[in-house]
Design a protein that fits this description.
Helices cover 49% and strands 14% of the residues. With 338 residues, the protein is an alpha/beta fold. β4, α9 and β5 form a beta-alpha-beta unit. The longest helix is centred in the N-terminal third of the chain and has 19 residues. It is globular. It starts with a helix and ends with a helix. The mean pLDDT is 97. Bound molecules: zinc ion. Zinc ion (ZN) binds next to β1.
Length: 338
Amino acid sequence: MTGLKDAIKKMPKAELHRHLEGCVRVPTIIDIARRHGLKLPTFDEAGLTKLAKLSGPMGSLAEVLGMFELAQSAFVSYEAVERITFEAMEDAFTKENIRLLELRYSPDFMLKGKGLDWQKALDVMLGAIRDFRRSLPFFCGIIVIASRSYGMESALKTVDFAVKNKGGIIGFDFADDEINYPSPLYAEAAGKLHAAGIPLTVHSGEEGEYTQVLETINSLNPGRIGHGVKSVEDPSGKTLSLIKERGITIETNPFSNYLTRAVKRLEDHPLKKFIKAGVSVSISADDPEILDTDLNKEYLLAVEKIGLSMDDLAYANKCALAASFLPPGIKQEAAKLF
Ligand SMILES: [Zn+2]
């Protein structure tokens, strides 16, 4: 087993689906709260860890939202944004051997109530990436998210922000509450992104029905889909065929799906089915700090619980590299590290 763990850790990896708000270390939350005189339920690291990390399948959505709020409370200044971005890359590079990382964030969620300027915060993040990778074999890009549950005005503002920053960011994502805010609502917004040449991924089919994945593909035409768990439930197999036909990459997040109960057991996760069907598929950690996971753990679970072989892992890693939204020249550079 140690052999497998070591082999996985050593693999140079590409990670496409990771939320910056889900990457905040607990000691960092505490330190930033101290520096800025913020309130926390406790300043004890072990105590706060219990409140900040999910230790098993979630009891309620409120419990998880509380964890995200704790992490979000740390984005209190530009220095904090810079530090959290830096630490997210440091963890990925040193602990997980990630060589290509896509970080995503929702400006409206991350900066809500903080009085910080969206543009300045993004500039700080992009600066942190430039500084970090200057001396390291590491490539990183930022995806901007519209949080569906924040309403249409927020989504449109976020799309405009992304279009204005198309030279700095690498992609766009519509995330969260797909049931109350179905994909067709964003067809026009997605059209704007396509017209601007901004690659699109969409959180879809994490919960609910496979029909939502079909709706997402038909109304938003994304290059990638986050989660996509429900797409294998289509009895006709049409949804999977369409994903394959369109060359869409599914960004799977196995442990996240287990913790949020999108799958009952890890053994039920459709990752292997995607691979068998010849779909382009990647493995990601979603919110490593909050979900107490990382890419090493995701790969290990994929082998031990979902039945992937080392060849399957290499395939998923190759798919991630190929489907990255980073510019082709940068991907070519990154590919030399794999
Ligand atoms: Zn996600």
